[in-house]
Design a protein that fits this description.
The chain is α/β, with parallel strands linked by helices. Helices cover 53% and strands 7% of the residues. It has 13 helices and 5 strands. It is globular, with a radius of gyration of 21 Å.
Length: 270
């Protein structure tokens, strides 16, 4: 078994804010089901941070080895608990976290599970509008030179190879079209319902607000509106920046180098 300590070599150290607290909530819903709103909500009502897919994609590349190891079932329950505890996380949502909900059920026997859902067709359209453009651009030249997504993103973090025509996994089924995606979506929901004991599971839509969530977690309802995080504009901005920087890298930078070289040549040649 590869140990957590081996992952941490060369990794930026994060200050723990949760060394003495349990992991409380496992988010088993797929991406584009209000996971950003849930993250904000959990961080308001729970005593620690909530892990989200944005961490591994846009903020913490040093977390990737941990998730590769999770795919290979390399860690003991104690190692999993330690990894999250050392970093101050008491909950998690979105992918790749949700794809490992079964392992987390075992590692965190006292944690409750939220299966966050939405209208299936709206979920599919959100995947098409937000996830697929970033996925496609990240794997095309020149954006692939600077993409935050690893080339094996679907296999590493989304449960399948993601090749067109492969209707498996989050990315693969969406690439295959609406029918395959909706089939995958419903099968995922059904599997979670079969797997998680009823007393540990809440099937939840963020449109329901605080009440059902807080009741399930035995927590008081905050005296403020439930967070509504619409990250579509942010996703589009990240895509735009990726395109600008990518094309700048292969156009402006070579031109600048050529101009500098020409200037040097002229200086030495005169």
């Amino acid at each position: 078994i590869r140990t957590i300590n081996s992952i941490k070599e060369g990794e930026m150290v994060e200050k723990s804010t949760n060394s003495d607290k349990d992991f409380l909530v496992i988010g088993a819903g797929l991406s584009r089901n209000g996971t950003r709103s849930l993250k904000v909500a959990f961080e308001k009502i729970l005593p620690g941070k909530c892990y989200h897919g944005y961490e591994i994609i846009f903020r913490r590349n040093d977390h990737r080895d941990f998730w590769y190891g999770m795919n290979r079932s390399e860690y003991s329950d104690e190692e999993i608990r330690k990894w999250f505890s050392d970093r101050g996380y008491v909950s998690g949502v979105d992918c790749p976290f949700a794809f490992h909900y079964k392992a987390f059920l075992k590692a965190f026997p006292n944690a409750k599970v939220i299966l966050n859902i939405r209208d299936p067709k709206k979920w599919y359209q959100s995947m098409v509008d937000n996830i697929l453009p970033l996925y496609h651009e990240s794997h095309k030249f020149p954006c692939s030179l600077i993409s935050p997504l690893p080339k094996d993103t679907p296999k590493a973090f989304c449960g399948a190879d993601g090749k067109p025509g492969k209707d498996t996994g989050l990315i693969g089924s969406t690439l295959a079209g609406e029918e395959a995606a909706l089939k995958f979506y419903q099968e995922w929901i059904d599997e979670v319902k079969r797997t998680v004991p009823a007393d540990r599971l809440l099937v939840y839509n963020v449109a329901e607000g605080w009440e059902p969530l807080c009741k399930f977690l035995n927590l008081p309802v905050p005296d403020e509106p439930f967070p509504r995080v619409n990250d579509r504009r942010e996703m589009q901005m990240k895509l735009t920046v990726l395109r600008i920087v990518g094309w700048s890298l292969v156009t402006i930078v070579p031109l600048a180098i050529s101009a500098g070289a020409y200037s040097l040549w002229k200086s030495y040649g005169s």
